[in-house]
Amino acid sequence: MGNRTIRSAFFLCGFAAFLNLYSTQGILHELAAAFDVSPEQAGQGVSATTLAVAIIAPFVGALAARFDRRTVISCAAVACALPVLWSAHAASFSSFLAARFAAGVLMPFIFAISIACIGEVFSHDAATEVSAFFVAGTTLGGFAGRFVTNSLTSAFGWRHALDVIAFLCLATGLAIHACLPAAGAARPDDEGASASRWTLLTRGPLLASFLVGACVLASQVATFTFVGLRLARAPFGFDTVEIGAIYAVFLVAVIVTPLAGRVAAQRGPRDLALAATGLAIVGALLTLSSSVIAILAGLALSSTAVFVEQASANAFISRVARGARSTAIGIYLSFYYFGGSLGSVLPVPAWNRWGWVGCVAFVVGAQALAGALVFFFWRGMPPASAGRPRSPEVRLTR
């Protein structure tokens, strides 16, 4: 099977991982009306999913170790359709939150196993590029989930919109099984690494990377949870379809992230992450404008930067955590999604008091912290391509 097909398969894995994760983020007003809660409370639907991912992610490697990774990934993607259908027909807000939590339990089996598989079957330089394709898939999945849900909600209601998301989960899972070659069971961590996971947790560069992930997703979730609420108010007055359309800014990252992966392979993830952090802050500040064009430009810049930061962190961890990659990735994802669950909760006081300015202050602070961690702790890591041939070394079989 050609490398292009394999890259496309991992792109689909990324798409599946994010398709349902934020699908309810743009319909908070509709959910609030349906369940008689505030829009801010409706945002807990996102937090419930990311919290479940954070809890389950560290254990995914051990739970899936005995099974073929293609089977695990594709089955998890297909199974995601069930809690989506549950959430679509939930009779109460508590039932809706339970369904969203159940979806989050399944998602790490797509995300974590895909990243671990990339790190194991590709050489370092190729892994950086394939990881970027995977992240580009998460970008398109995140956009599709939001855009499809918002567009169909306007025409048919949010429940039928989520029915369509469930169908897409099913179709994507089947496509992954068809495109991704069998990869065998996951390679276990080295004995020494498994016996010293506390040491792994407390190593400066890796611990910093885990915190970077938390900061990055917290800023992303905060931005796109509250910008919809802002644009729905005067003087903008966006309707549901228009709010869904703003997520088209994610499409920029679909193009940029794979290119950034090549840069990371040449320059190393540290330089790329620092540049992305700066761009994320600039983008957040641009959204303070009262011009819709400036706001959209800021959202495009900040969202693209976040996905580049994510790809950089994935590449850095894969290089540093040799012999304990599955453990490190699980811990990283736990921090990453725990940060995401906080991203729709922590800014609420600032939002209630200062509005969008308070939300931007939270985003800038989170990105500044991420940049400081990268600057001080990601030192001394050479580019993946330094001193080695650029060979993919793909070890997948049919």
TrEMBL record:
<dbReference type="InterPro" id="IPR011701">
    <property type="entry name" value="MFS"/>
</dbReference>
<feature type="transmembrane region" description="Helical">
    <location>
        <begin position="354"/>
        <end position="378"/>
    </location>
</feature>
<feature type="transmembrane region" description="Helical">
    <location>
        <begin position="329"/>
        <end position="348"/>
    </location>
</feature>
<feature type="transmembrane region" description="Helical">
    <location>
        <begin position="130"/>
        <end position="149"/>
    </location>
</feature>
<feature type="transmembrane region" description="Helical">
    <location>
        <begin position="272"/>
        <end position="289"/>
    </location>
</feature>
<feature type="transmembrane region" description="Helical">
    <location>
        <begin position="97"/>
        <end position="118"/>
    </location>
</feature>
<feature type="transmembrane region" description="Helical">
    <location>
        <begin position="72"/>
        <end position="91"/>
    </location>
</feature>
<dbReference type="Pfam" id="PF07690">
    <property type="entry name" value="MFS_1"/>
</dbReference>
<comment type="similarity">
    <text>Belongs to the major facilitator superfamily.</text>
</comment>
<feature type="transmembrane region" description="Helical">
    <location>
        <begin position="295"/>
        <end position="317"/>
    </location>
</feature>
<dbReference type="InterPro" id="IPR036259">
    <property type="entry name" value="MFS_trans_sf"/>
</dbReference>
<feature type="domain" description="Major facilitator superfamily (MFS) profile">
    <location>
        <begin position="6"/>
        <end position="383"/>
    </location>
</feature>
<feature type="transmembrane region" description="Helical">
    <location>
        <begin position="161"/>
        <end position="185"/>
    </location>
</feature>
<dbReference type="GO" id="GO:0022857">
    <property type="term" value="F:transmembrane transporter activity"/>
</dbReference>
<protein>
    <recommendedName>
        <fullName>Major facilitator superfamily (MFS) profile domain-containing protein</fullName>
    </recommendedName>
</protein>
<feature type="transmembrane region" description="Helical">
    <location>
        <begin position="241"/>
        <end position="260"/>
    </location>
</feature>
<keyword id="KW-1133">Transmembrane helix</keyword>
<dbReference type="GO" id="GO:0005886">
    <property type="term" value="C:plasma membrane"/>
</dbReference>
<keyword id="KW-0472">Membrane</keyword>
<dbReference type="InterPro" id="IPR020846">
    <property type="entry name" value="MFS_dom"/>
</dbReference>
<feature type="transmembrane region" description="Helical">
    <location>
        <begin position="47"/>
        <end position="65"/>
    </location>
</feature>
<keyword id="KW-1003">Cell membrane</keyword>
<keyword id="KW-0812">Transmembrane</keyword>
<feature type="transmembrane region" description="Helical">
    <location>
        <begin position="206"/>
        <end position="229"/>
    </location>
</feature>
<keyword id="KW-0813">Transport</keyword>
